[in-house]
Amino acid sequence: MLVMDCQRSILEALTPVDRERVLQNVSRALQAARAANMAVFYVVVQFRDGYAEVAPRNTLFSQVKQNGALRQSQDNAQVCPEVAPLPGEPVVIKKRIGAFTGSDLEVLLRSRGIDTLVLTGVSTLGVIESTARQAFDMDYRVFVLGDCCADRNPEDSALALARFLPRISTVCPVDEFIAGIA
User: How many CB atoms are closer than 10 A to CB 60?
Assistant: First the structure.
């Protein structure tokens, strides 16, 4: 199971209703995954002070740099306490939208023989869709827990979950996931 970009500053961009829903549902998914001895990985987007990793052509992360956000040293760049990792659960730092880009995620997954991924996090059109496409191209079996995802624009999230993600993954609610691993 991947818990992606559930960082304070990213979750603050959601509506309060979506933020609460995502945190509650990801927490439920985590409890079930841990009870089933499923491997849990966290993925965060963070940069060094000075943003050496941000290319001027990268308009999204240039804006992050301009705003002084998502530095590794900042508290609001850390995982929200409601869904925080337990000791021993790896926290993967990525440098781009997708979880595999600029990280050691693939090495961690392959070294454990993992071939199926369960994706949760924020944002649906960002890390979820990008990681699902990357994982699909690398021949992983991909599940997306739809009610464990959100986006700044709820309509964008709904569109991705209804039209785009089902082409490359199995989209299901957290209750179905919990029932399937119990």
Answer: 11
pTM of the model: 0.96
pLDDT tens profile 19-78: 999 999 999 999 999 999 999 999 999 999 999 999 999 999 999 999 999 999 999 999
Is the four-CA dihedral 39, 45, 47, 52 of positive or negative sign? positive
CATH of domain 2-47+79-181: 3.40.50.850
What is the distance between the alpha carbons of residues 125 and 153, in angstroms, rounded to a whole number?
10
pLDDT in tens, 104-147: 999 999 999 999 999 999 999 999 999 999 999 999 999 999 99
Residue 75 neighbours by CB distance under 10 Å: 8
50 Cβ partners below 8 Å, 6+ apart? none
What's the pLDDT band for 182 if we cut at 50, 70, 90?
confident
N- to C-terminal Cα separation, the chain: 15
Q: Domain map of the chain by residue range?
A: 2-47+79-181
**Residue type at position 144:** V
